[in-house]
Amino acid sequence: MIPKLEQYATYVGKAQIRKLKEEAKPLKGRHISHINSVATGGGVAEILNSLVLLMNTAGIKTGWRLFKASESFFQVTKKFHNALQGEKINFSARKKRIYLEEIEKNSIMNHFDDHDLIVVHDPQPLAMIKHLKKKQTWLWRCHIDIKHAYPPVWNFISRYIRQYDGMLISMEKYKHSNISIPNFIVQPSIDPLSFKNRDLSQKEISRLLWKQNIDSDKPIVCMISRFDKWKNHDGVLKTYAKVRKKAKCQLVLMGSSASDDPESLQIFADVNHKVKKMKDVTLITHHDDFLVNALQREAKLVYQMSLREGFGLTVSEALWKKTPVIATNRGGIPLQVIDGKTGFIVHSPGQAADATLKLLKNPKLQEDMGAAGREHVKNNFLITRHLHDYLRIFNQYLPAEK
Ligand code: UDP
């Protein structure tokens, strides 16, 4: 059943829902669309799956368009993605050509004439604005940390960003001083009613894990992330190798690939090769929201030791399920992992191993951190707060029609 706005009152109270409805009222009848490049895999798709429905249940006509492109395009945009996160790349004329040609194709295939507002997510569809901007409002929603972008790519990308009416970023520190369009801070969120986050009974959890041959008699530690070099599977494998010398446990690595990420096969092959030599490691590569849910609930702790991170929805997902997180302090992670309270911030596999042993040996600490994590997410990172942020921004750009 599709969740209605009222159902979220269980988590945030009736007054909050009434407020959201009031904020949505002036936007009734407005036509808005989001556009991004993947339907599943990764945090953006995760958010849009819930947010777009919720905007419709709030009475705003909201669509979701997918940017359709070739493998070559996604190879180029993955390079852009890496460069925007600070990596030096070979930024050739060929890459620009491929990018701009697919942008033009998608611009021909999409029509926004009757729209009031378009939200473009991330760099893949960014430059469509140059072909399609008319009288509607265009907002660019950037989900990654672009503060230290590789200058040649930044110069190319930023000329399109400047054509937007506003830009939405996840954290204050991602603000770019040479972009003068209005910036809004919108932190990501999780949906407590989605397949991935809704309550599960112990029987359902056990069944989901049993189907993967996971016997939870041995304590589970896990990582759930796309196969991406910035996610640092290697750091988690090194941590686990250290932990295993001192405690009994098993590692579950779950990671599907996003369809716009051609590098993931190589990362997967590398991880697969390494885990073959290790004991009690389960590698899961198919997409299954209920299984993610069950794992995040059953695990004693979750790792998110990213080298770069936009926000890290996996962290909020685990905390919501009362599971402490051991993580690096990258991107939005420290907003979620309060060191010593909702989990541990670590700087090396050695520290991560120490934190793991501490948690594995101390169920009371696990429980206290779990309770603090759930409360922290409830107060800050639920989809209702996210909807409120969007409504506030939309109302600013689309004043009520008289
Ligand atoms: N995810 C998933 N299956 C996987 C790996 C990841 O469903 O095998 C989900 C994960 O639960 C989360 C999202 O993908 O909802 C990842 O979002 P995050 O912000 O952590 O990272 P991103 O992939 O966007 O960089």
Describe the structure.
- This protein is of the alpha/beta class and 402 residues long.
- The protein folds into two domains: 5-189 and 382-397, 3-Layer(aba) Sandwich (Rossmann fold), CATH 3.40.50; 202-380, 3-Layer(aba) Sandwich (Rossmann fold), CATH 3.40.50.2000.
- It contains 16 helices and twelve strands.
- The strands form two sheets. The chain has a six-stranded parallel sheet with strand order 2-1-3-4-5-6, with helices on one face.
- Helix 2 runs parallel beside helix 16, helix 8 (202-210) crosses helix 11 (289-298) and helix 12 packs across helix 15 (363-380).
- The mean pLDDT is 95.
- Residues 42-43, 46, 196, 224-226, 254-256, 287, 292, 310-314, 317 line the site of uridine-5'-diphosphate (UDP).
Spatial strand order of the main sheet: 2-1-3-4-5-6
Distance between the termini: 36 Å
- Whole-number average pLDDT? 95
User: Low-confidence runs (pLDDT<50, min 5 residues)?
Assistant: none
The topology string of helices and strands comes to HHEHEHHEHEHEEHEHEHEHEHEHEHHH
Q: What compounds sit in this structure?
A: uridine-5'-diphosphate
Number of separate helices? 16
Total count of strands: 12
Helical fraction equals: 40-55%
Indicate how many domains the architecture comprises.
2
What CATH architecture label of the largest domain applies?
3-Layer(aba) Sandwich
Biggest sheet architecture: 6 strands, parallel
Class inferred from helices and paired strands: alpha/beta
How much of the polypeptide forms β-strand, as a percent range?
Answer: 5-15%
Shape: globular
User: What does the radius of gyration come to?
Assistant: 21 Å
The CATH homologous superfamily of the largest domain corresponds to Glycogen Phosphorylase B
State the CATH topology of the largest domain: Rossmann fold
Q: Indicate the CATH class of the largest domain.
A: Alpha Beta
